[in-house]
Amino acid sequence: MKNRLRDLRAERSWSQADLAEKLDVSRQTINAIETEKYDPSLPLAFKIAELFELKIEEIFVPNHRK
Amino acid sequence: MKTIFEKPPGKWTVMITGFTWTLVYLLARAVLDNVKLSDGLRVVVALTPVVPFALFLVFILAGIRHMDEFHRQVQLEALAIAFPLTMLLFMLLGMLELAIPLSPVDWSYRHTWSYLPLFYFIGLAIAWRRYQ
């Protein structure tokens, strides 16, 4: 799944560690999501969307959708 | 009531209990190899590593409960690799045992169990590599 997490984080000048702390996950988890090697669970995706005040589909885009 | 699972164990806690278990195991082996004891006492000595291992296991479980979803996924993949490798090892040893005489001096349980943590660490390395 593609995502805009890195861009959204950069817009706020947050480091991966900052974002990890806000979401109560590890920095490696943020890195794995940003590099699109790991898709977060639905609860974590909701948490991310809530943090950035966006809808889930505004952050995560399935690979089959352009 | 507070339990040991409520907060994640420190890295040192896990390492110290793991080290204690290894030390007790090595001491028990040395005693069994070198000291003449009655059969009953030999069984007691052989079972002593269970105590520090149980503590080690509790801290590992507490650690896993406090991992985030990504780290649990990595652990699951590591075990998904380690478990079939373990099956393969025991299947092959069983078959080889039928084919040729395997010396218990080299291929007893006390030798083969140490391959299991090795398989876990191989699995862990492969799983981590996938997400790098």
Poorly predicted regions of chain B: none
Shape of chain B: flat
Taking all residues together, what is the mean pLDDT of chain A? 94
Strand fraction band of chain A? 5-15%
Task: Give short descriptive properties of this protein.
heterodimer, A: 66 residues, mainly alpha, 434 Repressor (Amino-terminal Domain), two-stranded antiparallel sheet, 5 helices, 58% helix, 6% strand, B: 132 residues, 2 domains, 79% helix
In summary, what is this structure?
The complex is a heterodimer of chains A (66) and B (132). Chain A is mostly helical and 66 residues long.
Description:
The complex is a heterodimer of chains A (66) and B (132). Chain A has one domain: Orthogonal Bundle (434 Repressor (Amino-terminal Domain)). Chain A is built from five helices and two strands, in the order βαααααβ. Chain A is 58% helix and 6% strand. Chain A has a two-stranded antiparallel ribbon with strand order 1-2. The mean pLDDT of chain A is 94. In chain A, α2 packs across α3 (27-34). Chain A is mainly alpha-helical and 66 residues long. Chain B is mainly alpha-helical and 132 residues long. Chain B has two domains: 1-66; 68-132. Chain B has helices at 11-34, 39-47, 50-65, 69-99, 104-107, 109-112, 115-130. The longest helix of chain B has 31 residues, at 69-99. Chain B is flat and about 45 Å long. Classes of the chains: A mainly alpha (66), B mainly alpha (132). The interface between A and B is small, with 13 and 7 residues.
